[in-house]
TrEMBL record:
<dbReference type="InterPro" id="IPR014729">
    <property type="entry name" value="Rossmann-like_a/b/a_fold"/>
</dbReference>
<dbReference type="Pfam" id="PF18297">
    <property type="entry name" value="NFACT-R_2"/>
</dbReference>
<dbReference type="InterPro" id="IPR059101">
    <property type="entry name" value="NFACT-R_2"/>
</dbReference>
<keyword id="KW-0067">ATP-binding</keyword>
<protein>
    <submittedName>
        <fullName>Uncharacterized protein</fullName>
    </submittedName>
</protein>
<feature type="domain" description="NFACT protein RNA binding">
    <location>
        <begin position="233"/>
        <end position="310"/>
    </location>
</feature>
<dbReference type="InterPro" id="IPR020536">
    <property type="entry name" value="ThiI_AANH"/>
</dbReference>
<feature type="domain" description="Thil AANH">
    <location>
        <begin position="7"/>
        <end position="148"/>
    </location>
</feature>
<keyword id="KW-0547">Nucleotide-binding</keyword>
<dbReference type="GO" id="GO:0004810">
    <property type="term" value="F:CCA tRNA nucleotidyltransferase activity"/>
</dbReference>
<dbReference type="GO" id="GO:0005524">
    <property type="term" value="F:ATP binding"/>
</dbReference>
<dbReference type="Pfam" id="PF02568">
    <property type="entry name" value="ThiI"/>
</dbReference>
Amino acid sequence: MNSKSYNKAYVLFSGGLDSYICAHMMKRYGFDVELITFKSIFFLRNLETGKSVIDVGEYKLNRIVIDVTDEYFDVLENPKYGYGKNINPCIDCKIFFLKKAKKLMEDNDVNVIATGEVLGQRPKSQRSGPLKNIKTDSGLEKHLVRPLCISSLTKSFLEDIGIIHRERFEEMMQVHGRSRKNQMEYANKYKITGFSSPSGGCLLTHKEYCRKLRPILNCGIRDKMILSLLKIGRHFLLSDDPYKTVISGRNEKENDIIENFKDKQIILRMNMDDIPGPLTLVYGERLDENDLEKACLIHTYYSDFKNNNSRAKLIDISSGKEYNILYNEDDAVSLIESMRSKH
């Protein structure tokens, strides 16, 4: 390489196969590689913020994990390039990540950033037009390299100045489109393991999660607690102005998660001997008696209480307050269906 200032490269590292291979190819090329992983409440991978070491084939590479949840709301609420099938602003998301990496690059005298993007792999963000927009809008025209598909792209600034020679990447491996055959062969050859499945690590691509998320975004809510709870339970919208919701656990693991919030929120459980049931969290400002009565009705429906048109006893484990409701199954079913339709 021609200049000491180009010896180091940052690689955007999601933990997927393409990012592993990108990091490996950049290291083979001769760069001092450091991995950058962005974490958010919207991503499935549960990572600790800070530095760690990742095995990428025979290489041990340093990784820094940065939490971008707070800043990511601005991207999510008003994406310049719109959404995918759900609430996934894929193009704007990539631009946002690269801008964050660019700031880190400038602060640390690094001049190369690499990504594992593959032309034609994704229908919205990895076509030639969007790939060009991503490079331009991120301000990385002179710094970005995409080694996995470099042979399908126009010549870059890093090639013009002799830092990158595409034939060296072409000799390693090239990919175009959705097939993962070449990547798997490369991973097997260099014993690259530990990568996540290609099913998608972003909750914003999941239809059911987005169904729950949409009314929250519409209300302008950025509460990390309620956003984290979208991943679990049955959700019922009491009101969207102000936002009020009921979340009922579906199993012991989800009940344990809900119980962690017992000092902050109303959490209902059955208060009758030998009547098991879920834990149910009731969230919102200015909750009134009508809201709580509805929450109790929902909770009782999902418990083992079977005495229709009888009194059911519940308790809020946070405050110790007891509730006594007349339970009617038809009323519960009607309420649940009407509240689900609000999402």
